[in-house]
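Hi all, long-time lurker, first post. I run a small reading group and we've been trying to get comfortable going from sequence to structure in the token notation. Rather than ask abstract questions, I figured I'd post a concrete chain and ask someone more experienced to write out its structure so we can walk through it together at our next meeting. Sequence below, copied exactly:
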Amino acid sequence: MITLRAGMAQRVDIFRTKSVEQSMRDTEAPEHQLRKRLTAVDLTVFGIGVIVGTGIFVLTGQVAKELAGPAVALSFIVAAVVCGLAALCYAEFASTIPVAGSAYTFSFATLGEFPAWIIGWDLMLEMALASAVVAVGWSGYFSSLLNSMGLYLPSWMAGDDPVVNVPAVIIVLILTGVLIAGIKLSSRVNLIIVAIKLTVIMLVIVAGLFFINVANYSPFIPGSIPTEASSGLKAPLIQVLFGITPVAFGVLGIFSAAAIVFFAFIGFDIVATAAEETIKPQRDMPRGIIGSLVICTILYVAVSLVVVGMQKYTELSSSAPLADAFTSVGQHWAAALISIGAIAGLTTVVMILMLGQTRVLFAMCRDGLLPRKLAKVHPRTGTPAVLTAIVGLVAAVLAGLISLSALAELVNIGTLFAFVVVSAGVIILRRTRPDLHRAFRVPMVPVLPVLAVLACFYLMLNLPVETWLRFLIWMVVGGVLYFFYGYRHSTVAGDQPLSPKP
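-- Answer (accepted) --
Happy to help. Here is the structure in token form:
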């Protein structure tokens, strides 16, 4: 009987929550204290920096040609609404619990330690793969720009199948150095590069307006046609479970396209990882998260309307639609300009993804779920320098040596899973801690958080079966690691520290 009770207590123990008050106290320990340097402008620029990548130059034309036609602008709006629901939930949490860790920290306060570990493990996968994948993309654009200038890198260090992707490794290591040097320097570098990126995008939009042919917008919503269904592990889970056949164009095509362009918005959640380094998080976190999402939505809609206006959607290129649209009207200068914009865009994406991953790991280390020694802050720079260096080295190795294209969709499912948990967590914390001061409150709770959960889960169902299997395997590995290390070394037990278990 005693053994049974002990076993039951252990099972319950993994769902111990970390109070908001304890989370706030942890940020005051000198050796684990991040410096508060960021403003609402910094956070908004961080959000724009990580959201706007090559998707704005590639994805807009691709989905217009294959799924939505000129109505791709509506697809971006639908995706923005879905992201907006999740963004509201992130904004409430980040202003209520302004602590590093984002969804991991929010889950710890609402669902408990083991669910928080799973979310943290999930975010590690999302950000590690994403930063490496984007660095490889940066290398491709950088090599292409050099080629246009008559400079050619050896095939072993760049190109489609290099032995070591040297440009990707170099950019990751440079950005790691910037992140180690301090959060304010990181924000200034990000501001400069985002300014270059936005300038290129605005020039492309304004220049494209002079070459729009109104006839290309007709029909705005082309008639729907069934598309060829995938089979086996590559089939979307929703098709396997419910036998739903994918549709291109028409109203359903707009929503099918929205499920794809949704991933062009991923990144606003990473703003929440910098809550602990924000001077006035209760006021500025909601502004940064929601403001960056609104600005990026306007940019995406504007670019999509320009590209389908310049060239008939059926004739758009799938690989470089915006550049080819300008080429089709005799404006060859745009290709080089777009390459510069893409390089600038991807540079900030890599940097902020690594920033986000470092802050999530920092929070997990501070709680003892990973080695606590790694959560120490450098006395001069005020950053977790050792942890940042480790993240940078891992990202550099992944980007330089491993082909990641088959794993890229794991980034999508990992992000959506975090969105689901955070949205549900808002409802839970409202019920368990109604006394907390909330500088920002999601309206219409529980309706809007429930809608966010349903919308994100629907998008998860549109991902292939093989992506789900890889995700589940990663989660199982994380669960095993938690019980072998995290549970035994956790420093959290209600409001009292635990001694590591022998």
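A couple of things your group might point at:
The two ends are 23 Å apart (CA to CA).
Confidence is low (pLDDT under 50) at residues 1-12, 494-502.
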